[in-house]
Prior knowledge:
The protein has one domain. Helices cover 6% and strands 39% of the residues. It contains two helices and 14 strands; from the N terminus they run αβββββββββββαβββ. Strands 1, 2, 5, 7, 10, 11, 12 and 14 form an eight-stranded antiparallel beta sheet that branches. A hairpin with a 2-residue loop joins strand 3 (63-67) and strand 4.
Amino acid sequence: MIRYCLLLCSAGAFVPTPAFAAPVPKVENNDFIKLKEHTNVKLVDNLHSEERPNNNLKDLKTGKQKLGAVTYDIGEGILQLCSLQVLEKPEKFEGIKVGRTANKLHFLQGAGFSTADDTVVGKYIIHYADKSTAKIEIVYGKDVVDWWAYPDKDAPTRSKIVWEGENEASKEFKAKIRLYHMEWTNPTPEKEIATIDFVTTDLEQPCAPFCVAITCESAKAKVEPKTGDK
């Protein structure tokens, strides 16, 4: 047998050996914006009205998870803005740190209470490192609707429903609770984003938007052509 194997090798025969390659992980070009130092309502806390106890986001899992096509890093609290119905909350959150470039920003958000369609209920103000700014409007009916979703409730026309659950308060009314994904394409992706502000725009209407998480989508790595490619 040994002599036979030596003859095969000397004749140039190839004896395959098993090769075990580690799977290549899928790389997502995502950075997660830290909201912890700005949050003012915990997921387990009651939202919007004391008249509806246990109206919360307790069932939303924390940590990194994919909702729709985007991965978010969900913390233990949210940023809740004020409105005509939610008077005790702040009008704005300033200086949410980013410190990086981005092709897109992805917002996981919702809103308490309804208002007229096409009302601008809030906005994100992008502050670039060169002191220029950009504005992202949150439009009721397009980007958010009331997070309580009754069977006949219309979804936003521009954003996407990416999470649905319920809480003890919504169950009593046979309603679900929903979160929405809003996407913004950066017109100047080469410029570093320094910070983001989250701001109420109309205190004369009842809808109060809230932000759960923000994901920053970075530019994809440039692939160099192989030798001989044209």
